[in-house]
Amino acid sequence: MPSFRPLPVLTVFTLASLLLLMTLGSWQMQRMAWKSDLIAAYEARGAAVSFHEAICSPAEGLFSPPVTGPVPLTGQTLRLYTLRETAGWMRLALMRAPACQVGAPPRYLLVEVAFEDWATGEQAPVRTWRVETPPAAGLFTPGNDPDTNAWYSHDAETMAAAFGIDPAALLDVWARADNGLPLTLSQTPPAKHLGYALTWYGLALALVAVYLALHASRGRLRLSKPSQDGDKDKKAE
Known about the structure:
Layout: E1 3-4, H1 8-43, H2 51-56, E2 73-83, E3 87-96, E4 108-117, E5 123-125, E6 129-132, H3 156-163, E7 170-177, H4 183-186, H5 190-217, E8 221-222, H6 228-236
Parallel strand pairs: 4-7
Antiparallel strand pairs: 1-8, 2-3, 3-4, 4-5, 6-7
Helix pairs in contact: 1-5
């Protein structure tokens, strides 16, 4: 019959490590499913619409359809730092939004008109947009500096003041460049999450193998009962 006498401290450490590795693997599997659902939602967002339709009849879901159309802009732009393939500045201009109702007070929309490369200073114009809610500032996001026109997070009140308009007239959505699949989805596709999950599960399997091999080498794990001859030899020793 098999015989197993586990080492207590090593067993506790191994079980805790095994639980951690399995949890990380399961988490990556969940991330893979979540990322796949987001990509499917992005691909199903529909055909291009006008600014009027995007603002007055917003689409349901996480991603707006692509937006095209004439953009009557002011001359002033704000520089908002962002990361894409490279670091750079989103050039944000102010556009008077189309009225959704007759006689409605004027409202304004922030529109990205170009992306300025940080290193070269070259500006790539934007011709297609997504109308969506601006992201909130992160914990380590630097503060905005309106005096030098250096912005690091969306601040409706201060940005409206920089354009000289009433903050209440600025829409709570903006139009940013539609450059295909967002970097947050394309940078780590579902296949990478699957690879990470298999790595964690593989480490868990290797940990179990090392644990069992160590016990076997110390005679604490036997798959069969020792032979009588082996017992006699041990007694003779």
